[in-house]
Q: What sequence folds into this?
């Protein structure tokens, strides 16, 4: 049973955009389930390529549906990791503090600052979300702080990835679009800071 699971994970981790689009097309009769399930799995198994999954969703389902399915799946997976870490956080925290003493600094930073670091970390496309989810759960971040940071930050990250995946050639030929994305991230960070 374990061999089968590791083979499936290895297969999924090596997929490129075209292969994921083909996979989504093959299972299109299932509706949005594959588009939601793949980002959920990525949150639980961080070696899977989230950018490729989101880009394939945007390509296979269209920009807005692909964004919605990716966002739902990524948020669901992040919430599951958060809840597991919250439940078993003491054991994980003790293990990480012994293995990596600087991890305690990161946990304290997340705990003290709350919304802003979570929002910022979720907003950037290449932040290891699994680690952020784990840290938020271990730190016992309240749900009323975690859920808005997750919803807003993941929305921004998934939208950036979806836009790039849906029209990647446009970003190559029009680099000002990347500048607009960076400016939008800064404005949202500022608004989040003011709210906090």
A:
């Amino acid at each position: 049973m374990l061999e089968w699971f590791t083979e499936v994970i290895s297969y999924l981790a090596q997929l490129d955009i075209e292969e994921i689009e083909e996979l989504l097309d093959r299972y299109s009769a299932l509706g949005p389930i594959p588009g939601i399930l793949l980002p959920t799995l990525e949150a639980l198994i961080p070696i899977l390529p989230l950018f490729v999954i989101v880009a394939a969703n945007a390509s296979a389902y269209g920009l807005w549906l692909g964004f919605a399915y990716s966002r739902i799946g990524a948020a669901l997976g992040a919430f599951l990791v958060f809840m597991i870490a919250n439940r078993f956080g003491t054991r994980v925290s003790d293990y990480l503090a012994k293995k990596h003493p600087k991890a305690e600094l990161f946990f304290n930073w997340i705990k003290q600052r709350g919304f802003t670091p979570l929002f910022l970390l979720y907003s950037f496309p290449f932040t290891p979300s699994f680690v952020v989810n784990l840290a938020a759960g271990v730190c016992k971040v309240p749900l009323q702080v975690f859920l808005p940071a997750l919803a807003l930050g993941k929305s921004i990250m998934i939208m950036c990835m979806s836009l790039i995946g849906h029209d990647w050639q446009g970003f190559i030929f029009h680099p000002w679009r990347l500048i607009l994305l960076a400016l939008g991230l800064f404005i949202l960070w500022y608004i989040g800071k003011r709210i906090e």
Q: What stands out?
A: The chain has a mean pLDDT of 79. The radius of gyration is 17 Å. DSSP finds twelve helices and no strands in the chain. Residues 1 and 105 are 39 Å apart (CA to CA).
